[in-house]
Amino acid sequence: MAYDVIVIGSGPGGYVCAIKAAQLGLKTAVVEKRSTFGGTCLNIGCIPSKALLHASQMYDEAGKELVQMGIGEGKPKLDFKKMMAHKDATVKANVDGVAYLFKKNKVDTYTGFGQVLGGGKVSVTNDEGETQELEAKNVVIATGSQVAGIPGLDVEIDEKTIVSSTGALELEKVPETMIVVGAGVIGLEMGSVWARLGTKVTVVEFLDKVLGPMDGEVSEQFQRMLDKQGMDINLSSKVTAVERTEKGAKVTFEPEKGGDSQSIEADIVLVATGRKPYTEDQGMAKAGIVFDKANRIEVDYHFRTSIPNVYAIGDAVRGPMLAHKAEDEGMAVAEILAGQAGHVNYGVIPNVVYTHPEVASVGKTEEDLKKEGVEYVVGKFPFTANGRARAMLATDGFVKFLADKKTDRVLGVHIIGAEAGDMIHEACVLMEFGGSSEDLGRTCHAHPTLSEAVREAALATFAKPIHM
Ligand code: FAD
Ligand code: NAI
To answer: Which SS3 state, helix, strand or coil, does residue 285 take?
Structure first.
């Protein structure tokens, strides 16, 4: 059977691409080597981590904010096994959901390792080593990413004591102590989960700030909040060794600028120093696919690789390694293959860290604008001055708008606070339409909502906020 499209990989990039292609009338198949669909995101990434982040946050609030509101008297008992079962059930519901959507949209599925052979051919090899060949007019590679490890070090990640995010989602009990290498998004999200459940978490980070690419002011305030939550954060520190010990594992690090090294020991070490595209050992180079220096598949503006009719999307190509970026690319490629004008606006891709409070941003940071020499104005509004935030005991954080000084066009929005990850989309829509801070400042917002703080920050950019 010849397909219009074969997609290799069923993560957010691949499964969304396949469903969209089928919706547009293309005969579509997906090849996935895992026994369930959904890729990193649904199986070992976004979904299980958010299930644990939500559950652990509720547990944390039950002992604190809820008591302040008159609910309960102290920390409730933790049923750890049940919390992990909630995570597993959430994953199952989501991966089953993708299988259902494939059936509903008549997407054919093949379980096995897919390889692009060129000339519209794809081989699929199952666990028994049996290979079959499929044919398609177009192939979309969506093979995603994998754990990168610590640059320059050969650390053995056993997923029991020295773990990546995958092992950190599967721990058998709450550890007493954990060292997190890397204060990026995985380190701080997973570190938060275990800290809330009672683990003493120590973070070691190479850079002089947490969440490296985030707006500096946001990152600074966020670090203070993490300090208050009891995380011990060591910045400007380069990890030089991670070794197993009798008790657990030992991390050795030294000041990034040079100096004496020190070692600390913990039950668990989480290595969260980045991910790399999953493009090695895939036979792609043999087929003629060209890679960039970071081993990402080279694609042009229309996601075309160096082989005719072979496209690539998601974590395997340039751009942020985010599920929604992969999804948007998947939809765009399907539209292109159906003869439509598929397109992704890389200037408006939100970035959310699902800690407490959440950190969300879209567009340029203040540091970006300074570097680019763009003249800008800043509008800020704190959640301490928002009525709903007070009612929720969620007054930590602020909203920050950055707008062009001459035109008032919004260039970036940064939010640190409860539900920041949902509120950021107001800014995304505004920026997608090239809106100004005045456009948002003059839009009626329901009272009392956290979103009023977004409007007030917009007001602060071109006029004055009311409640401050
Ligand atoms: P993937 O999801 O990695 O999917 C690739 C799929 O291809 C896999 O199923 C793999 O088995 C399959 N595959 C690979 N090679 C082959 C082959 N040769 N044949 C057949 N199948 C193959 N992003 C967010 O936006 N929000 C979050 O909250 C978030 N949380 C995360 C939490 C963690 C712990 C991690 C690790 C990541 C998180 N991410 C998050 C990132 C997100 O998971 C990725 O950006 C996203 O999954 C990328 O989608 P993708 O389709 O490109 O690849
Ligand atoms: P990251 O790139 O966000 O952070 C890695 C951190 O490790 C960096 O701050 C880096 O400076 C530090 N580091 C590197 N080497 C070091 C060393 N030797 N010593 C000390 N520190 C060192 O990578 P992370 O957190 O592993 O996440 C990988 C990807 O997964 C990200 O690109 C992210 O986009 C995606 N992801 C997204 C989530 C979300 O959107 N909420 C959640 C989880 C992951």
So the answer is: helix
CB of 197 closer than 6 angstroms to any ligand 2 atom? no
DSSP, res 346 = G
Q: Tell me the C-alpha distance between 181 and 269, whole Å.
A: 7
DSSP 282: S
Residue 356 annotated among the catalytic residues of the structure? no
Residues 194 and 263 placed together within one structural domain of the fold: yes
Q: How far apart are CA 146 and CA 126, in angstroms?
A: 21
Q: Coil, strand or helix: which one is 402?
A: strand
What CATH number does residue 428 fall under? 3.30.390.30
Nearest CA to ligand 1 atom 47: 41
Strand partners of residue 124: 114, 132
Compute, in angstroms, the gap from residue 279 CA to the centroid of ligand 1: 13
299 labelled ligand-binding:
no
CA 141 from centroid of its chain's CA atoms: 20
Q: Say if 129 falls within a structural domain.
A: yes
Among candidate residues 466, 453, 444, the one with its CA nearest the CA of residue 395: 453
- Tell whether ipTM is more than 0.90: yes
Answer yes or no: do 135 and 283 share one domain: yes
Q: What is the per-residue pLDDT for 63?
A: 87
Q: Residues of the chain whose pLDDT is less than 70?
A: 1
